[in-house]
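Internal ticket #5521
Category: modeling
Description: The requester needs a full-assembly model to guide mutagenesis choices. All entity lines are attached below as received. Residue total reported by intake: 1217.
Assigned to: D.W.
Attached entities:
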Amino acid sequence: MLRYTLRRLLWMIPIVLGVAILVFTLMTFCPGDPAQILLSGSATDEDIQALRDNLGLNDPYLVRLGNFLGNTFLKFDLGSSWMTKVAIKDEIATRLPRTFTLGIISLLISVAVGIPLGIIAAVNQGRLGDNIATALALIGASIPGFWLALLLILLFSVKLNWLPSMGIGGVKYYILPALTGCTYGIATLTRQTRSSMLDVIRSDYITTARSKGVSELHVITRHALKNALIPIITVVGTHFGMMLGGQMITETIFSIPGMGSYIIGGVNQRDYPVVQIGSIFLAIVFSLSMLVVDLLYAAADPRIKARYSQSAKRKVKTK
Amino acid sequence: MTETKNAPFLEINDLKVEYFTKESVVHAVNGVTLTLEKGKTLGLVGETGAGKTTVAKSILRILPDVGARIVGGEIKLEGRDLLKSSEAEMRQIRGKRISMIFQDPMTALNPVQRVGDQIAEVIALHSNESAEAVRKRAEDMLEMVNIPRERYSEYPHQFSGGMKQRVVIAIALACNPELLLADEPTTALDVTIQAQVLRLIAQLRDKLGTSMMLITHDMGVVATHCDTVAVVYAGSVVEYGTKEQVFDHPTHPYTIGLFGAIPNMNVDERWLHPIEGLPPDPSHLPTGCAFHPRCKYATEACRTGEVPTVITPDGHQCRCHNTDAVLKGEGK
Amino acid sequence: MKTLTRRDFLKVASIGSASAAALLALASCGSKGGETAGSSAGTNTNTGTGTNASASTGSTASNATVIEDVQQAAAETVETESDILDELTIGMGGFYTSLAPVRNGNYQWQIFVRYLFDRVIYRTGDRRYIGQGAKEWSVADDGVTYTVELYDYITDAEGNPVTAEDVVWMIEESIAAKQKACYAKIDTVKVIDAKTFEVKMKSDVAENFEICMASTYLVARKAFEASADGFATASVTTAPYKVTEFVASNSCAMELRDDYWQKEELLPPELKNRVKKLTYKTITEVSQQQIALETGVVDAFASINATIVHSFEENNAYQVLSAPGAVGQNIYCSGHESRPIASDVNLRRAIFTCLDVDGLIKGAQDGRAEPMHDFVPRTSTGYVTKWDNEDYFVYNPEKAKEYLKESNYKGEALILSGGTSVQKVAQLIQGYCLAVGINIELQIEDQALLSTHANDGSTWDLALSNQGNGLINVWTNRFDNTAYAMGDAMSRHDDELQELLEFTWQVKNFTEENIDKVHKYIMDNAYARGLYLPFTITVQRADIPLTTPIIASSGEIDYPASAYTL
């Protein structure tokens, strides 16, 4: 297992490098002159050219790419935002935890609601429980996040005054944003759980478990669910990855200064360093989440664990 | 020394079970009546789809929730009707008083649970012992089925088919059940392993005094291991008696056909002798006697009306209108 | 009887719940309106003497006021004994990303920057330049050499003195950073003594010096160099307020210092500080702006988005205060030789006279703007008051059609370029032009993309643009044909205009008479015209006891400088 994990971590390096080069290239060839934007309109051509020289924008592409990769990966000098002059390292250090927390809370709510709903749907297949659970999932998938956000704010902030309508602070500031982000997750998890459970519940080993006298609750939670987990873990993993990048709308509505608004702001203002470094960070976090998901597979299913160990060993044996 | 009880150990009376979908109803079990004495083995013989597994699952009441329904009859264990028991009472019985060995060992074990734990689970469910004691008992069971106890922590995918089936047997016997339902326990295994497994089951049964219902479609197995035999066709018992009675004096045309289909190894034959026709569609059973479309002896009476259960000259049961004609061999 | 299948159930369930949710939304909406006023202690604001006959007030609601005379309001507070407000939280739609003094000029004229930094010279709401760090200044006869005398007791929050050396250093840093265009106009700067320094401008264009000094923050070099990130996240301030909490792009909480360097009696009315704790919060989402006011997250919202203002009118729990903004909406014609419009004055006149500015105001600004008579607001330095009473491209479609007939226009589509924020007004203009037979094709782009060719007249025929910062700024930015590679901002080379401009913008020639000449020249040639000046609207809770508001040059209310009666 250890060897497998190490191999995966090593694989992350070319992936992150690839993302870095791709984003850098895209930003370079994207129309819009950052120098012009930085100098906000009342500048002369001279000024703009001078700033371009200053920022190194007039150097050839390969030189700039080399500098960028060298600075970022060898010297760990992440640079500063051209717009605000604030060190990107510091901004990310404050913003990433917010986006991350939001993502985790959203994920926890999705899991806590989606999986039980899916189980209820599977166990009551064709009957009322299934219909209700599936209908709820359908609604969750259809409601647009921003619309739900406004409804929730109207209800919980304006009318009931239980929760703050925007901003950051303690845990209660994360509740409404997390609820906004989790509806889609609940919908997909419910459907996936239902379908995996339905597959599993018809299995022979479930009959074996029942024939041992295991209570129905334990049949579902201990025997069926553990086996149904693999596809569910996949959904959870990709969902978490999406959460990290796709919080833009939620962050805008609730005025949360997180990674989403940082990077989008950077794109709009052609603030190259912000976009580049921000994308790299997201790539790293996403890769790590995928690694965690794959490790969870191994924890959930010993057959997969065996396969990982074998494939790692095989490389060593054929020498 | 014979031990007579007032009521037989297991008594099944007129059991009827249906599987249903929106479109059709499948009559899987149509009025099966059987008894089993304590310590004896009853063989349930018939083709695939005859309803044998359904009978066994009905005893334990582990038919699927959706689409299966017991619509009539009684199943009495030492006088007590299991079909009227509550779910909680059944859970006490399952694994402890009655347990089952399943047909396909490849899928009968939980792939993400350690093999030893699967045995320990059934032990822990029915006792109050400490975790260590339970584990020790589970390891003992492994040894009893000739699997080294060190393999407790391994997973099913690390075992061969035969060993998996032995684990299933270990699970079934872990709590010394009074009744063992063995559903074609060797069908999915190699011939060489089959003998081993059957011998193992027999040993354990003798050692523990367990009553057994052995479901099989192999007459040879019946001959070796069973005391009584019931021949099942299209969900009902067509012939029922001791092994000697049924083997020496088969009376029902279907039973005769089954024996006839077994190739004789001593004679040089060119063609096999199957029973003509095909088993009926269980959702559209023929009227009257279900076997009549394939029967040489079928008369008008066979097409309509109830089929009586008659007692043959040597004292075993047969469900047929025309036993006289059959015994005399007067077929068309 | 047909049994309900599962799919039927699902259909009904989803329609049913969607409707239920919609009903819930409607029910929650209907909660405002008819709320009673908190307290009537706060009387409505003083409107001063309106000198402006053509101002459209935009609203006749009982709780809405338009402040027209900014200067009068300021004058009134000199004599006003004001109470001190304990705390105030104000919402704003933009975001301030860093406290660093040496950075681009975005937002530098927004009022809250006054609470972050003191400057050498301060620009008031009616665009007068008053000394803040500077005690006085004078210009030599050559018209380009200025001598500035600072107060000799300026200190920052850590007690570091701020001397002429620090100021000169800050100016040099700003010139080197090239982030604010005004610094390019400084030739040299040098220290004379501890409280005096000299600035030499490259040319004697009016207002250049003042803008540079008003962009220069007072910062102690020692403190700045000691900071790890150049004050980006934590600053050592010379302003009356110190920042207690700063979350970039999100909020800024400030508290009044008791060790502010300037003496209370020397503070002019625009620089007084009557709020103890001040917090600014950024809320970009429009509906959240409204909710923030309604739930009390903010006490007032500055420059609130025009689309939600109407929900606060007629609601006596709030007051709506409008003041003329700082940035006007203008339209320019290309001067590039490849575009036919560059040489067709009648076409240009036709376009400018077919536009109904009142209609544009109603359609694009919800009535909350006033028509302009030049490119800049009337508080701008150099604005000639009589322009307000003169005809300025009066709306006359018949006349427009006549001009069109005399032009060489053959029905081709003219490209109108603009950013996404002006999409609505662009569409309205397209409509008016079509009504007289001129075809307009819209080219709306995001800001970044737009900036790559905004000054390239070969890529458009007409351009919508907004300018603030004064008449000189518009002239140098838009009409100076040495500003860009291809000419002026419209890629035009009018040497006569150039001569006129270079003559007029010199300090000694910057007189009403000469300015009027430039105005007339541009008008006659229909090179460009001003359209309208959007109001800056602040909505505040009615129970804030504001008696006299002071307006900043951006049109926002300067709450600390305003007067209160508790």
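Resolution: model delivered.
Comment from assignee: Chain A touches chain C through 61 residues (CB under 8 Å).
Ticket closed.
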